[in-house]
Automatic annotation (TrEMBL):
UniProt keyword annotation of Signal present: yes
Keyword tRNA-binding: no
UniProt keyword list: Signal
Record's signal peptide: 1-21
Name of this chain's protein: Sugar ABC transporter substrate-binding protein
Domain of life: Bacteria
Length: 435
């Protein structure tokens, strides 16, 4: 499928009705002397981002005298309902949102997000958010990330790593793996000891991130460009996707992944790792701060996935300002505070991956190790993004296909066929013309 991106008539109609945001301008009337601002995000209170952004809200209120009306939403609430919410009077003034063509890109192309170009210039955000970290904040008129205008600002990075409960490894006399062969050998030893090695949550993102990491083990840059940017053919029956899907099926058959995980969510999988029910958990650096606080009495460690050329990850989620907001200047002021050294240093010392912290102010050795690891990924240009980005429906569709793979109702060939059909339909519906 060789594809080029274009607007479809429906998207043009929506954009016309709503009114596309101008270059840094806004057609929405702004409130004079506002006394409050509404902020939404979905981070846990004891996570690095949650702690940092709570501090940013505190600083914002002190500096502006404006009250913050904070509402915590779930990832799924915002993901599933963003279009409807942002096209209503219920929209917040600033909120955390997922990056990518099918999420922020789609909303930007529909005129639901404010163009941030003027604020980027005013606050010099592009000096702090640059390179591959800037890609997820910029979208062209067709909603494709990496170029065009600014619609979102990140203040942290993220990638997916393997977490290891070292106490469990030591208990069974198993070494922390550094190669794929060692990883599979370690998992088999746990199974032989009656322990399921990998904590999974197939109902949400954890397994699709593992599947994508396995794809990245074999994928070429050409494949990634075709998959993420619609530039060229996506070979769904080729080496990369076949290897990943077969490996997941093999790991389920061998007991490395429990069939019972099909109904578990990400929080379930993370909590099961925290409780010591599983020795390994492959998930994002957004868990790091929580593990530091909730597993303080556990000896745990982490590393990039063994033998990874590319890793699942990108910039962190982005702050966006809905076009319907009547307090955009205040919203931009809040975003700027999240990039301040005080907030960034707190994020780093809470187990996050800040992009504008003072390295000398990061006191935790484990966090320094995490930041060093991520900086190495950036240096090697090894970020492989996420598998659900190409279409607005692919997140749920990937989860559904992987659930069928894990519970045995569909084989590898059928699952790959489902993924291909869903991908092609979703990309076409989003405005991709097949040639």
């Amino acid at each position: 499928m060789k594809a080029t991106r274009k607007f479809v008539a429906a998207a043009l109609a929506v954009a016309t009705m709503i009114g596309m945001a101008g270059c840094g301008g806004s057609e929405t009337a702004q409130e004079e002397n506002p006394t409050s601002i509404k902020i939404w995000h979905y981070e846990e209170d004891n996570g690095a981002q949650g702690k940092a952004w709570a501090k940013a809200m505190e600083i914002f209120e002190k500096e502006t005298g404006v009250k913050v009306e904070f509402e915590k939403k779930s990832f799924e609430q915002i993901r599933q309902n963003a279009s409807q919410i942002l096209n209503s009077d219920e929209a917040p003034d600033v909120m955390e949102y997922n990056k990518g063509n099918a999420t922020a890109g789609l909303l930007a192309s529909q005129g639901l997000l404010s163009n941030l170009n003027d604020y980027v210039s005013k606050y010099n955000w592009d000096k702090k958010v640059s390179g591959s970290l800037a890609d997820t904040g910029k979208y062209n008129e067709q909603g494709i990330m990496g170029s065009g205008d600014w619609y979102g600002i990140t203040n942290y990075g993220e990638d997916i790593v393997m977490y290891y409960n070292k106490d469990m490894f030591d208990k069974y006399g198993i070494a922390i793996p550094t190669t794929m062969d060692e990883l599979e050998d370690a998992m088999q030893k746990f199974v032989d000891a009656g322990v399921t090695p990998l904590s999974e949550g197939v109902a949400e993102y954890p397994l699709q991130h593992l599947w994508w990491q396995l794809v990245l083990q074999k994928a070429s840059d050409k494949f990634l460009k075709a998959y993420e940017m619609y530039d060229g053919d996506v070979d769904w029956q080729g080496e990369a996707t076949t290897y990943a899907t077969k490996t997941i099926k093999d790991w389920v058959d061998k007991g490395y992944i429990s069939k019972d995980s099909t109904g578990l969510k990400a929080e379930d999988a993370g909590q099961n790792f925290i409780k010591g029910s599983y020795p390994m958990f492959f998930s994002g650096t957004w868990w790091f701060g929580r593990f530091q606080s909730d597993m303080a009495n556990t000896n745990w460690t982490f590393s990039l996935f063994p033998e990874s050329k590319k890793v699942v990850g990108s910039s962190g989620n982005i702050w966006v300002i809905p076009e319907n907001s009547k307090r955009k200047d205040l919203a931009a002021k809040f975003i700027d505070i999240t990039l301040s050294e005080e907030v960034q240093n707190l994020m780093g010392n809470s187990g996050g991956l800040p992009i504008a912290a003072d390295p000398d102010k990061i006191t935790d050795e484990k966090t320094k190790e995490l930041i060093t690891s991520f900086n190495g990924v950036l240096k090697d240009n090894a970020l492989g993004f996420y598998p659900d980005w190409p279409t607005s429906t692919f997140y749920d569709e990937l989860n559904s296909s992987l659930q069928e793979l894990v519970n045995g109702t569909s084989d590898v060939k059928t699952v790959l066929g489902q993924m291909e059909d869903n991908y092609n339909k979703g990309v076409e519906a989003a405005g991709v013309k097949q040639q």
